[in-house]
Amino acid sequence: MRISVVYTNRNTYLCPAPVGGLLVAQRLAADGHDVDFIDLMHMKKPADGLVAALHRHNPDLVCFSIRNVDNMTMDAYADPLPDIAGYARHVRNTVRAPLLIGGTAVTTFPAQIRAMTGADWAYAGDDVDPVSRFVASVAQGAPDLATPGLVYADETGVHENPFSICGYADAHFGGWERIDLKKYRKGYFDCGVVTCTGCPHGCSFCDAHRTFGRDYRPRDSRTVVEELIELERRFGARSVFLINNGLNYPLESGKELLARIAQAKLKLSFSCIIEPGPMDAEFARLLFRANCSSAMIFGSTLDDAALERNQPHYRSADIAQIAGHLSDANVPFMLGLMFGGIGETGEGVKRSLDSSLAMKPVMRIMGTGFRIQPDTPLRDAAVAEGQITADDDCFTARFYEPADTSTAEIRAIIRQFSRSHPFENLRMLGFVARSIREGLFGRSRRASGDWKI
Length: 453
Ligand code: B12
Known about the structure:
Layout (H helix, E strand, L loop, with lengths): L1 E6 L11 H12 L3 E6 L6 H12 L3 E5 L15 H14 L4 E4 L1 H5 L1 H8 L3 E3 L4 H12 L10 E5 L2 E4 L20 H5 L5 E4 L1 E2 L10 H4 L5 E2 L2 H15 L3 E5 L7 H13 L5 E6 L6 H9 L2 E7 L5 H7 L5 H13 L4 E7 L6 H12 L5 E6 L8 H8 L22 H14 L3 H18 L12
Parallel strand pairs: 1-2, 1-3, 3-4, 4-5, 8-11, 11-12, 12-13, 13-14, 14-15
Antiparallel strand pairs: 5-6, 6-7, 9-10
Helix pairs in contact: 1-6, 2-3, 9-10, 10-11, 14-16
The structure holds cobalamin.
């Protein structure tokens, strides 16, 4: 069967390459289908580009890979779905092929996005085996409507088959020749590489358990390093993002991977997220030796009372300790602070910002306002406090307002903090200058000792 797989994401912020869409495309190609990958990210005129590509390939099936429901950003809210519904209309007007949609956004809201795009089928989940079997059944002219994760409609209504998140322990990512990876470099990372999925923490605002799984499923560190080597040697990648919910979870597999990356003597550098929790000096040194260009300590507030209600698995002292390890190991790090959860107060925000000064991050990424996600404690709180109704499915974005402060007040506190500490930005300028230099001229590998695993 001829299949066109379309990456519909056009959000250029840090510009993630379509690793999931490519995994699906690779699998369908391995199954013997004639697959064309259409990447809308960098097209100047995406609708025209899509139509032209569809005319060329004349597919029997079109697949949309849809990443974001929205950007979850209160101050500069962006919702790509109306444009994506427009691309779906172009598909219908151009070819007589059915439309199958998937991707993280679809896993979160399969029925809603199916209805919005008019797709024939939506697929929720990360497992490509059912996708492969379903597409085979479509090719045989008898779509298997019992496929796990499939959402479809018939004369009796809309049906949502249950799905599970399986992770990528046995997956081999690739197919990068199907896209122009160099264009992604402009978004800083050539590509993302999955190292582990899952997160058991259940933070009040996060729905990772629904889309990324509850249990850690680390990938084999050898496979990850093979992918890094291929990205560097074959595709000239200089910088990648290691995809997981914190490279330090589980700590030992994070260390094993870092040691292997260091041994591989790659020139490419990587960025990663450090989730507050287990992390030690050895891990920080391994980050340096493996060529980590920036680590992002990813937290919400630094106010322990608010943390207790939103992210009880850590305290502000844990972040200070991690910052210390990273500084000692000479690993530049950013501090991600996201305010506005349950129990946040103006005083707590001020204390958080003040205590972050001693940590000396190269950059603070500060945000305000949590988008209320389905199936989260934050949603329960929003319903209990009358911010949304009990039947709200959260498809339309609403941002939580803490009871003892407001997102407007928090924003004012952040603005005041930035005005009061203008020199904090100098550290960031030095980091940006170094990043640009390394982006232009490549990065020399850090001297590494003998790290055996
Ligand atoms: C890593 C990551 C990032 C990295 C990306 C780095 C990189 N270069 O790749 C960074 C930090 C840059 C980032 C940024 C953002 N991210 Co992010 N990110 C993730 C994370 C943790 C993993 C995504 C990933 O790569 N998964 C692995 C790949 C292999 O899976 P996949 O793409 O989903 O594809 C699989 C399935 O979806 C399916 N599939 C995919 N396509 C198709 C197509 C068909 C037809 C079928 C059948 C199946 C199918 O099969 C694939 C293989 O299993 C997810 C968490 C999560 N739950 O997924 C959040 C997540 C996707 N991000 C999210 C958000 C909001 C953002 C930002 C908008 C944040 C911001 N405020 O700016 C930006 C947007 C970036 C952009 N320009 O699009 C949200 C999206 C939620 C929403 N409401 O839309 C998520 C879900 C996190 C969350 N729970 O809040 N992100």
